[in-house]
Design goal:
alpha+beta, 15 helices
């Protein structure tokens, strides 16, 4: 026997001696039940027969395992999932076994009112409810009745209903949907009537266009420049609401030549300078199309391998919309004709024409480009051409896509340091047509200019985005932005300048969340689609009531009759200065 076994043997002998002859150690065999149908116990052991059992998981919180309230309602739904129950049952539920046939419960709580009717009518009922709520004896709440966010909003709505804010708050909550307004939405007319024989070639929805991304092309190069620009007068930077300056009518002539009518673009296309031709106005309208609300159209002409993005003759494409993206845009049926969308577009265009020429120094020598303005040829004596400089720029979008576009600049300004190159400017104006919409500029512009600018960028998002894109395409160094208001709200012919502000195009793009990668992606998508089309004439139309761009195949002689009527009808041209 080993040393380790000796203590064990001695202990066994001691136990046997202590037991004596009266008790003999015995082994009791436990009762084992065989489960032939599966794994686990067959029944409930007798020792646990009267103890209720509820299923649970080891991952359950201890508070949930010991919760006898079963399916309780949590006061905050955010915490309901935190105590997710593993199994459901009624092991801890209470059941009354006595005879209840002679017992009846009378419900005196009354019918449940909806959230917007839970508060009493009149001032006295509201005061009484507030006093009852402040009473400590009435502060105990039903644990199963949760104060959700909807009830908090209803209380806020009831408090503001007397101020007229309830419906407005409700509209914001439901995404602008007016729950109690059954007025049908007004349908807009298309910019051009779609003929039955036109064939739809492609349909592009805005949600898909907004997801497009494309790397910006390398820096463009100027292949042709022409025109002359005058110098900006810095005295207009000191204008404010206390020293407002009246706007004067300018006689300078502005030219808005289409792509195919531009003689320089024709020459460049023959020389093989590119295979896609357009203007900055057309490119900006297309690249920012997902922000548009009003309909517009672009004519696409494919001649061999060349693509021309053009516009129909007439001034309508060059009109500047007013409050296009506002929550309550101008109404076409407004009682005041001067506040209708068409009249406001003409007014805004007229203001920008005069403003861009008034803020310049007429006496100073103009900054001239290499070539003369070919659009000014044939003008009569005494007629003045507007200060404008044109840069024909070339972008290499890919190995087989070269874009050539005519861009436009309005003026030049001296650099910040002596000897610096002149800074190129684009001059634009925002106009206030009524003091009931947004903020009153005369009261808010000096003290809250940022809020005024934010409101205008929201209400005119598409227009400001087009201005910014055009400035980036033209390579402008600064954007001069003027705030112009009517001298009298009912007089659309007289205006005053209330202030000026200057921006870098990149800063303006960041403020309006303009993603140029998405803008270039939209343009590349349209170009790729057009390259696959056969030679012919097409119309890219923005649907007037749906966020969709549609491409139609149109006859080669389409819009020619409209062009002849446009040339003969001078009264429809809003760019001609009044006598």
């Amino acid at each position: 026997m080993s040393v380790e076994e000796q203590p064990a043997a001695g202990a066994a002998a001691a136990v046997t001696a202590a037991a004596g002859e009266d008790e003999t150690p015995a082994f009791k065999r436990p009762v084992l039940t065989s489960n032939a149908a599966g794994w686990g116990p067959v029944g409930v052991p007798a020792a646990f027969a009267d103890i209720p059992f509820q299923q649970f998981s080891k991952s359950d919180k201890i508070g949930k395992v010991a919760d006898w309230s079963e399916n309780s309602r949590f006061s905050d739904r955010r915490y309901a999932a935190r105590y997710q129950q593993f199994g459901t049952g009624s092991a801890f539920s209470y059941f009354h076994d006595d005879d209840d046939t002679s017992f009846s419960l009378v419900d005196r709580s009354g019918s449940t009112r909806p959230g917007f009717m839970r508060f009493g009518r009149g001032r006295m009922n509201r005061v009484g409810a507030q006093r009852s709520h402040r009473d400590p004896r009435n502060r105990q709440q039903d644990p199963y009745q949760a104060l959700t966010k909807d009830r908090k909003w209803n209380k806020h709505n009831a408090a503001n209903k007397a101020k007229g804010k309830g419906q407005k708050t409700q509209n914001r909550r439901y995404g602008g949907f007016r729950r109690y307004d059954n007025t049908p939405a007004k349908l807009r007319d298309a910019s051009v009537e779609v003929k039955p024989e036109w064939k739809m070639m492609e349909e592009m929805e805005f949600p898909q266009l907004m997801k497009l991304q494309c790397e910006a092309p390398p820096e463009p190069k100027d292949i042709y420049t022409m025109g002359a620009m005058e110098w900006y007068d810095r005295k207009y930077d000191r204008v404010d609401t206390r020293s407002e300056m009246p706007m004067l009518q300018q006689q300078a002539e502005h030219h808005y030549v289409s792509t195919t009518d531009d003689p320089i673009i024709r020459q460049l296309s023959k020389k093989g300078a590119g295979n896609v031709f357009a203007t900055d106005a057309i490119l900006s309208a297309l690249m920012c199309s997902t922000r548009s609300i009003y309909p517009f159209d672009i004519v696409v002409s494919k001649v061999g391998d060349l693509i021309f993005l053009d516009k129909r003759d007439g001034p309508h494409f060059d009109f500047l919309s007013v409050n296009e993206n506002a929550q309550d845009p101008p109404d076409a049926d407004d009682a005041a004709e001067e506040n209708r969308p068409d009249a406001l577009a003409r007014e805004a265009t007229y203001i920008n024409h005069n403003f861009s020429q008034q803020v310049l120094k007429k006496a100073a020598a103009a900054y001239k480009y290499e070539h003369e303005n070919v659009f000014a040829e044939g003008m009569g004596e005494g007629e003045e051409v507007a200060s404008v400089g044109y840069r024909y720029r070339q972008w290499q979008l890919s190995e087989d896509i070269t874009l050539v576009a005519r861009t436009q600049l309005d003026a030049v300004m001296k650099g910040p340091a002596p000897g610096d190159a002149p800074q190129l400017l684009n001059i634009k104006a925002l106009n206030e047509f009524t003091r009931k919409v947004g903020m009153d500029w005369r009261n808010k512009l000096d003290s809250q200019r940022g809020a005024v600018l934010a409101t205008e960028m929201k209400n005119n998002n598409y227009k400001v985005a087009k201005w910014t894109t055009s400035a980036l395409l033209a390579g402008a160094d600064r954007i001069k932005l003027g705030y112009i208001s009517r001298s009298h709200p009912q007089d659309p012919n007289k205006h005053v300048l209330l202030g000026m502000q200057v921006f870098k195009p990149t800063e303006m793009a960041s403020q309006i969340a303009l993603n140029m990668h998405n803008a270039w992606g939209i343009l590349r998508t349209v170009i790729d689609i057009c390259r696959k089309l056969p030679q012919g004439k097409y119309l890219l139309l923005r649907d007037p009531n749906k966020p969709i761009l549609r491409l139609y195949e149109v006859p080669m002689d389409a819009f020619e009759s409209e062009e002849e009527e446009s040339d003969s009808d001078e009264d429809e041209n809003p760019f001609k200065a009044d006598d």
